Amino acid sequence: QVQLVESGGGLVQPGGSLRLSCVVSGNIFGTGAMGWYRQALGKQREMVAIVGSGGSTMYAPSVKGRFTVSRDNAKNTVYLQMKSLKPEDTAAYYCNAVVRTQGSSSLDGYWGQGTQVTVSS
Which of 19, 65, 93, 118 has the most CB atoms at less than 10 Å from its CB? Predict the structure, then answer.
C-alpha cells in the first residue's frame, strides 16, 4: 500500500557530505511527520532528524548543526543533507513517514528498507 524508497547513501571520507532522499508512494491521503533514523552495527536504532507536516524540525544532539532535514510535500519526499561527516555517523539510515492512506481514518508509521552510509578514509 505504502512504499518508502531511500537513495543517496554510499562511502564518503571524513569531513565529506552526502544527501539522502526518500520518496513515499502508494495509496496516500496525507502525510504527517517524516524523518530519518539510523542503526549502527551492534547498536539500537536511533532518531537522527524529524520534520513535521508544518516544517518544524528536531535533531539528535550528535548531528545538530551538521545535518539538515527537509521535505517537499508536492513530491512526498524527505531529504537529509549531511555535512562534516564523521566515522561515527557510519550506519544504515532508515526513512520513516507517518501516513494516512485513502479510506483510512488513522495514521500509521512506515519504514524504508535502509541505505548504508559509511564514513571512512
Answer: 93
